[in-house]
Please model this.
Amino acid sequence: MGYEAGFNACVLDGYTFEVNPSPGMVTMPEFKKDTVYVKTLTGGIIYHWDVLEIGSLMTMEWTYMPNTMRVALQAKYKANYLSYAFKDWQNRDYTVIMTNFNASPVDNPVDTHYTAKLELMIETVV
Model:
């Protein structure tokens, strides 16, 4: 999910992620197909659309997260605000609740970085 692959940076409540989640380590909720049949005077019309279930979890993991990013996300998680605006790497907008964030340091003498996991519960799709 790196920027070099043509993806945008994720943004959580105005904070732009320094590093997007590791490739293959994102769990996106599945869209559900809704269909409605409406009777008319001369027959009927079928409407259908994709719906993202409210309350679905989006999980993102990093094998490399810089310390500055960990500190910023941890501060948002501990602030315990009810919800945040979130823009994913494909420029889709959501209102989310941070349900879990944990990060573990990686033993590396060159730089301090972390493996991390962030769970966001989708409140609305904007």
